[in-house]
């Protein structure tokens, strides 16, 4: 195979793996060579289904165990969408097998887990990155330029984000996100990770000094060992008098917006996680003006759109294809970028502080 192509394996047949089958196919410098499941029949069914939906020239092999995939010589990197409760084991095993690792979020159950994963990847000279797709959208480049131009937002004051969906009836019984053994952080890990990551990105990954979180609702599988968060709100305090708040929930209908405001204006992104369907991504910049003339009080909106040509999904320009293209370029170049592991750990540390705060009912400080 072309040395400029990164050969991928997938550990598990989770629903998100179907999307990333297509992302690998669209990346241009990546090829999927193997898919592992706990049963060969399940792996074969996954490959057949994805080949019907998004056919690739050479169908990947289906293998009946994760260890078998990690032993293959035709796999350079693995994508791991396994449940959070078992991720640490398989990330470390993949690193020990010399495979680069793209792992779903949250990366681990605790920051200590993530440190162990990063240490294993460092020992075996492999890359680790989490699967936050919006980090690879070209929209972020335009957003950073806007935040830094000194006029659109001015001095940064406030970041607010919400990511939620209204889970269907029976979700906690049927979906692994209701199982405290597999997904102990519930909506905080599944959705809150994105809101925390966005705030950290805006702040150039300067850590908050204090975190306060509140558990608003929880649920779990009947007969299971415990419940998981189903609705959480949080507040982050950063140096320089900047604050951020977030809300994540399995109980409120689809929302995935973020606002960044400052002394001169604000930016609104209505779809910061999963772009709305189309061939453009965008955000709005608002510099409202309040004008009083005698008895006339006018609030003038003054909003402009910043538009970036980029497909929402299923295209080589889409953010998920960009993610696999970026990762594959690191692998084929032989360069490792520690930044991706560092920001995964930073996000996990903030999430851990949110968990502690919600459990103990008090603010939690973060050290350096």
List key phrases describing it:
368 residues, nine-stranded mixed beta sheet, Rossmann fold, alpha/beta, Dihydrodipicolinate Reductase, domain 2, single chain, 10 helices
Description:
There is one protein chain. This protein is an alpha/beta fold. The chain is built from ten helices and 17 strands. It has two domains: 156 residues, Rossmann fold, CATH 3.40.50; 195 residues, Dihydrodipicolinate Reductase, domain 2, CATH 3.30.360. The strands form three sheets. A nine-stranded mixed beta sheet has the order 16-13-12-11-7-10-9-8-17. Strands 3-2-1-4-5-6 form a six-stranded parallel beta sheet, sandwiched between helices. Strands 14-15 form a two-stranded antiparallel sheet. The termini are far apart. The model has no long low-confidence stretch (mean pLDDT 96).
Topology, please?
Elements: E1 6-11, H1 15-27, E2 30-36, H2 40-53, E3 61-63, H3 66-70, E4 77-80, H4 84-96, E5 100-103, H5 111-123, E6 128-130, H6 139-148, E7 156-166, H7 171-174, H8 186-202, E8 210-219, E9 228-238, E10 242-249, E11 251-262, E12 266-269, E13 280-286, E14 289-293, E15 296-300, E16 303-309, H9 319-333, H10 339-360, E17 364-365
Parallel strand pairs: 1-2, 1-4, 2-3, 4-5, 5-6, 7-10
Antiparallel strand pairs: 7-11, 8-9, 8-17, 9-10, 11-12, 12-13, 13-16, 14-15
Helix pairs in contact: 1-9, 4-5, 5-10, 8-10
């Amino acid at each position: 195979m072309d040395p400029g192509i990164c050969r991928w394996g997938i550990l598990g047949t989770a629903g998100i793996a179907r999307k990333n089958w297509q992302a690998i196919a669209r990346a241009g410098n990546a090829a999927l060579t193997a898919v592992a499941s706990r049963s060969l029949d399940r792996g074969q069914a996954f490959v057949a289904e994805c080949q019907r939906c998004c056919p690739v020239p050479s169908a990947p092999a289906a293998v009946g165990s994760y260890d078998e995939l990690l032993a293959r010589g035709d796999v350079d990197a693995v994508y791991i969408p396994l449940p959070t409760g078992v991720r640490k084991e398989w990330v470390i095993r993949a690193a020990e097998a010399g495979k680069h690792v793209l792992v779903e979020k949250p990366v681990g159950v605790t920051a200590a887990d993530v440190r162990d994963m990063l240490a294993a990847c460092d020992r075996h000279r492999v890359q680790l990155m989490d699967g936050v797709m919006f980090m690879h959208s070209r929209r972020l480049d335009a957003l950073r330029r806007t935040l830094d131009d000194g006029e659109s937002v001015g001095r940064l004051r406030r970041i607010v984000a919400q990511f939620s969906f209204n889970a269907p009836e029976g979700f906690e019984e049927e979906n692994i996100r209701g199982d405290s053994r597999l997904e102990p952080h519930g909506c905080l890990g599944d959705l809150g990770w994105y809101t925390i990551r966005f705030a950290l990105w805006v702040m150039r990954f300067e850590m908050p000094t204090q975190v306060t979180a509140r558990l608003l609702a929880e649920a779990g599988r009947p007969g299971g060992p415990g419940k998981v968060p189903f609705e959480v709100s949080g507040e982050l305090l950063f140096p320089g008098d900047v604050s951020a708040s977030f809300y994540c929930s399995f109980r409120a209908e689809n929302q995935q917006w973020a606002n960044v405001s400052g002394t001169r204006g604000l930016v609104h992104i209505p779809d910061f996680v999963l772009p709305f369907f189309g061939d453009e991504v965008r955000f709005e910049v608002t510099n409202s003006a309040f004008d009083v003339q005698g008895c006339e009080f006018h609030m003038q909106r003054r909003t402009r759109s910043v538009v970036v040509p980029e497909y929402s999904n299923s295209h080589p320009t889409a953010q998920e294809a960009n993610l696999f293209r970026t990762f594959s370029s690191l692998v084929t170049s032989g360069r490792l970028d520690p930044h991706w592991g560092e920001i995964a750990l930073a996000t996990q540390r903030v999430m851990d502080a949110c968990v502690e705060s919600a459990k103990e009912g008090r603010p939690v400080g973060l050290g350096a």
